[in-house]
FAD-binding oxidoreductase
Amino acid sequence: MRDIVVIGGGVLGAAVAWALSRRGLGERVLVLERSQPASGATSRAAALVTLLRDDPAMVELARETLRAIAVLEDEAEEVGRRQVGSLHVGAAGQGEALDALAARCSSLGIEVCRIGRDQVLARAGWLEPDAIEGGVFVPDDCYVEPYLLCTAYLRAASRRGVRLMTGVEARAIHHADGKVEGVELTDGSRIAARVVVNAAGPWANLLSADAGLPLPMAPVRSHYWITEPTSAVERGGPIVFLSEIRAYARPEVGALLFGIREQRPVAADPRGLPADLGGFVFDARDPEGWESLAEGAADLARYFPGVETLGMAHYISGPSNYTPDGKLIVGADPALDGLYVASGCNGSGITFSGGIGRLIAEMVCQEPTFVPATAFAPARLGMFDPFSPQFLAACAAARARKSAG
Ligand SMILES: Cc1cc2nc3c(=O)[nH]c(=O)nc-3n(C[C@H](O)[C@H](O)[C@H](O)COP(=O)(O)OP(=O)(O)OC[C@H]3O[C@@H](n4cnc5c(N)ncnc54)[C@H](O)[C@@H]3O)c2cc1C
C-alpha cells in the first residue's frame, strides 16, 4: 500500500522520495507533481553546490548532497556535475580576512587551500589583478544541471519502487483527530496516506497554512544573468564568490553566469504565484532586474573590467523560499501526526537536497537524525500570518543578509 505521499516533484520532493526508497520504503511512496518534475524553482537554479555555511549542521547537509550525487553517478545517473571547486576571492588588503576564512573552513572540516593572487588568476583569468589579494579555494564544491539532478533522484527512486504521478494537483491535506489521513486532489478525489511530505516549493504554504501549520518562509526573487559569449572566461574555471560586492559567478558555456545580491530583495505573496512560472515577474517596474544590475554593475566591473560592454544574453529569475532566521524548514508538524515539511532553503535547495532528503527519511522512520534538526522545526515561530506584508518583508530582508554560498 502506498501510504507515504510526497507533494511536489522538484529537487526536494525528488530527494525525499529517493532517500525513502534507499531505506526500503520505495513501494510505499507516491510523488504527486501537478506539472512536470523540476518545472518549479528547481529548473531555474544556478545549481551551485557549496559547502561553506555558518551553521555546522548545514555544512553536513550540503556534504550529504555531494555524497548523494556520488551515489547517483555510481548508478550511472547523469547530473551534469562540473567539479570545478569554488574560489572565495578577497579584495586587495583582505589578506587577514582570507586567512580567517581558511581557518573557519578547516574548523568546519571543509578542505581548503589558501592561495595568492597569481594562483587565483591562474584559475580565473577574467579577474582584474589589481582588485584582488588572493583567495580560498574549496575543491569539493561543484555545480550541476538542476533538471538532471532532480530527474536522477526520481529515476533512481522509481527503480526502488517509488511511483511518480504527474499532472496531479493536491488541493488539501486531510486530517482527523490530530492525524494525517491523506490528500485531496483538485478533481475532488482523495488519496489515503499515513504520512504526507509537503515539498511543494514556493507553493508549500498554501497547503500547510490551510492545515494549521503556517511555514516561516516566503518566496523571494532570486536572479542571475548570463553574458554574451566571451573568450575572457575560461571553460572549466571555478565558481567565484566576491563577498565584498555580494556577487558570485561561474562559467556557462563560453560565457559568464553571475548573480549580484540586491540591497532590497522582492518577496511575493504565494497566493499570487501562478503554477506556471514562465511569465511571472516579481517586480512589474523592473521585470528584467535591470535596476538590481545597475546597482551592482560598477562594483562588478572593478573585478571584471569590460563586463559593462558585454551584452547580457539571458536573465533568469524565480522564487526561492527565504526564512526570517535563515534556517531551513525540515521536520514534522508537532500538532498533526504524519505531516512533514521539506522546504525553506534560502536560495540553496540544490545544495541541501541530499541532506534534506536524508533528514526527512530518518524522521519518517523514527531514526535519530544525522544532524541536529531542532533549529529547522517548521513550527519554531508559533502562529503568525505567512501572507502578511510585514512577514513577506522579513523574509525578503533575510536574502539581503545572506552570506556567500
Ligand atoms: C534564480 C535562482 C537561482 C538559484 N540558484 C541556486 C543555486 O545556485 N544553488 C542552490 O542550491 N539553489 C539555488 N536556487 C534555489 C533552488 O532552486 C530551490 O531552493 C530549489 O529548487 C527548491 O526546490 P523545491 O523542490 O522545494 O521547489 P520546486 O522546484 O519549486 O518544486 C516544487 C514542485 O511542487 C509542485 N507543486 C506545487 N504545488 C503543488 C500541488 N498542490 N500539487 C502537486 N504539485 C505541486 C510544483 O509544480 C513544483 O514542481 C536558486 C533558485 C533560483 C530561483
